[in-house]
Amino acid sequence: MSTRDPRIDAYIDKAAPFAQPILKHIRRVVHAACPDVQETMKWSFPHFDYKGAMLCSMAAFKAHAVMGFWKAKLLADRGFPEVAAGVEQAMGHFGRMTSIADLPSEARLTRMIKAAAALNDEGITVKREKSAPKPAVKPPAYFMAAVTKNKKALAAYEAFSPSHRREYVEWVTEAKTEATRDKRLAQAVALLAEGKSRNWKYERT
Question: Tell me: the pLDDT tens digits for 59-69?
């Protein structure tokens, strides 16, 4: 039996107007093609799992949306070469989508999803090379100066895993303007003081 995750409803509602029809269309086709699919949020964007393994995912950005299959290479080998066509342009497998027309036809997409589900039925897994661990994040002095001023924020930051620390540091340091950086830094300190990770909204409790 399929499940619907309210976090995905919220994700779609917050997406740009152009992206909402794309995400809704993908969601509907996935559920129709794989009735027992399970919805969840991973890495802050919607995923669809089947039989305990990832099936596909979707995401929306400011100017485009994407859809990806976890076992894309195996799907390509099974007669769906187009899943690899857009991988050089975006993180998904159909390039940078701005409308439903950028997706394969509903019939074709349905066949892809069923083929992906069949791979999970067969218990076929994808061997992935382990990437080298990232070096420990080195926060800039201004970041630590702000965090240190709040004892609760500092305690939470020091207790967090390296990946959670990295999320905060990269979010702040990647700001394009000083004003945005200062705003994000203030938000980061406030969230840390509450003991929350950067993406706490998407974490299961």
Answer: 999 999 999 99
